[in-house]
Here is the input.
Amino acid sequence: MRRFKPVLFVGIVLALSGIAVTASAHTRTSHVNLIGREDVIPNALIQATFRFSPGDISVKHDSRVTWADKDEAEVPHTVTIVKRSELPRTVDQVFNCAVCAQTLKKHEGPPRKAVINVGAAGLDRPGDSYFMPDKATINPRISAQKGRTLYYLCAIHPWMQGAIQVR
Here is the structure.
């Protein structure tokens, strides 16, 4: 008779019993892709599936994170730090995002600004924002102190949201 290793046996039992074992909500990574697409069917549908993948990440203080635009559309994006309370949660909030409008106005200038730093260089507090032209890649330093959580969104597509846990 074949013997099962204890780890394999526990895994099979968990799988069969319907118990899910999941990783932390924050993925430990230093790379985020911007993915998705836009679809329009006149008089029927408008859909945008843009998102950060992964959205929630965990990184070390003073490290760098790469955001790379890999979506299927020719559109710009931003990585904008906001207060948790400023993250849109409804369709109305997405289309009337005040912090998004303020951020985009600052990026437009004059003069036109690719990077807005409110605090230290890098990403460390609400108001910091990096503009990403279509298919761009950015690699800002996470300058927030250890133990902080930064919430971010795309000011152009505010349903694109994530969190950076600084460890």
In short: The two ends are 48 Å apart (CA to CA).
